[in-house]
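User: quick one, sequence for these tokens?
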């Protein structure tokens, strides 16, 4: 493992009031001591106590002041990286931050690679791999729920449950190996029945985590939501209401929206990635036809489809095409323009859609039905418990794949038990499940995977 001293700008690469430059490694104090003096022009870095901060100046090669700064020192292992760490709080201009970083490099540090501070925290045992990944998720959080979920993972919510599962599995492995090594003192009589119950319990726990991954993906990335309907049904008006400003052009002319419009909103702490599409109908217009095909494609890939029905006009072949498109999708039907005389009723719709599809009467002109719509979205995806839910969500597809591998290994244990196979077969598959879970927390991780994970981090973290 590299133990040299690294440095990087830890704050955003933009003009701001304060900028932070982080230095970590064996010579962090020595490097900064070559540049930093207090207000009395004294070098004090080597006398600083851990977790204290001092005011002073950064000096250049000519011993001239470059900036006035606050320097904090955290002695390892009680730092983020578990190494000696110094942070220089300077003014946040790009020129000055880069100038100070340049002086630090000349003083003996090297520029950190993306994610190298967090990588060192992992390698030094400060955090495990799932917690390291949570750091990046916090930085890239797109909504309140994603942030809360990532914070829980950073505090060890996923790590704790994986460690408990691995502890249960390794106990069974140790028991089997001990019994095989010392059959005179440790009996395996009746053990297959006990192991079968234990494996069932483990499968249920892992199955629950795997099932949470779909919601975890939605929490992390947002719900991909597509608005479909015939031209002039009120789709663009709905988008404008949800976004809170005039993003889409609204006219009485059918076919105004010819391409997709994408916007992201927050709804009860979760993200909706909303796409307003061209009205679906038969058309000879080449540009509009492309828009209609895009609408169909986006609807087929969506997590949620909002079907806006114009209640003031009769059903036609375009509605039939839309109904065919959404039959296997999570869908909310908005019976719109209820401020006008209705030609399509709620009863008419119920005859044409799935029994459990929610129908909401709305008027985008008078802005009615929106509260019911928002509540329906929340209940549809998160059982109405978005903000108060303490459940652990798997938000990483890497973690999900590891859980699936562990689940399959445990299913193999069950098959071996049912086929009355020798006990060492149980041990082999239990060890495979143990290793798969270890990949989540970094117990069984290779250098290539580690490099791939940390290369996605931003510089300075």
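Assistant:
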């Amino acid at each position: 493992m590299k133990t040299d001293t690294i440095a990087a700008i830890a704050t955003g690469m933009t003009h701001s009031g304060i900028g932070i430059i982080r230095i970590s490694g064996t010579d962090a104090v020595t490097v900064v001591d070559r540049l930093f003096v207090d207000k009395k022009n004294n070098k004090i870095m080597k006398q600083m106590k851990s977790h204290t901060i001092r005011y002073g100046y950064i000096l250049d090669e000519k011993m001239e002041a470059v900036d006035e700064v606050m320097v904090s020192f955290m002695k390892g292992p009680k730092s983020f990286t578990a190494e000696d760490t110094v942070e220089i709080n300077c003014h946040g201009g790009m020129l000055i931050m880069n100038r100070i970083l340049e002086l630090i490099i000349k003083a003996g540090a090297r520029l950190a690679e993306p994610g190298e501070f967090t990588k060192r925290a992992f390698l030094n045992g400060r955090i495990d791999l799932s917690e390291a990944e949570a750091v990046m998720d916090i930085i890239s959080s797109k909504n309140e729920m994603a942030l809360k979920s990532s914070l829980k993972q950073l505090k060890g919510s996923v790590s704790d449950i994986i460690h408990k599962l691995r502890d249960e599995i390794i106990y069974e492995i140790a028991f089997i190996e001990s019994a095989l090594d010392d059959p005179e003192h440790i009996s395996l009589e009746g053990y297959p029945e006990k192991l079968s119950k234990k494996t069932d319990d483990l499968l249920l726990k892992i199955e629950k985590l795997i099932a949470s991954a779909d919601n975890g993906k939605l929490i992390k990335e947002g719900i991909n939501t597509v608005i479909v309907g015939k031209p002039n049904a009120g789709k663009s008006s709905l988008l404008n209401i949800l976004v809170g400003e005039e993003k889409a052009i609204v006219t009485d002319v059918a076919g105004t929206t010819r391409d997709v419009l994408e916007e992201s909103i927050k709804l009860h702490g979760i993200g909706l990635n909303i796409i307003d599409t061209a009205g679906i109908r038969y058309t000879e217009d080449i540009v509009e036809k492309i828009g209609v095909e895009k609408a169909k494609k986006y609807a087929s890939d969506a997590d949620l489809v909002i079907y806006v029905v114009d209640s003031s006009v009769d059903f036609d072949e375009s509605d039939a095409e839309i109904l065919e498109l959404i039959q296997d999708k999570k869908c909310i039907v908005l019976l719109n323009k209820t401020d006008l005389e209705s030609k399509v009723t709620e009863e008419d719709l119920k005859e044409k859609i799935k029994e459990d599809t929610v129908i909401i009467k709305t008027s985008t002109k008078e802005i009615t039905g929106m509260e019911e719509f928002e509540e329906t979205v929340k209940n549809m995806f998160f059982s109405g418990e978005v903000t108060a839910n303490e459940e652990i969500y798997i938000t990483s597809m890497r973690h999900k794949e590891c859980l699936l591998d562990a689940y399959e290994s445990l299913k193999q244990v069950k098959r071996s038990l049912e086929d009355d196979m020798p006990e060492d077969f149980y041990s082999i598959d239990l060890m495979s499940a143990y290793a798969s879970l270890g990949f989540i927390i970094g117990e069984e991780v290779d250098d290539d995977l580690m490099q791939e994970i940390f290369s996605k981090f931003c510089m300075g973290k």
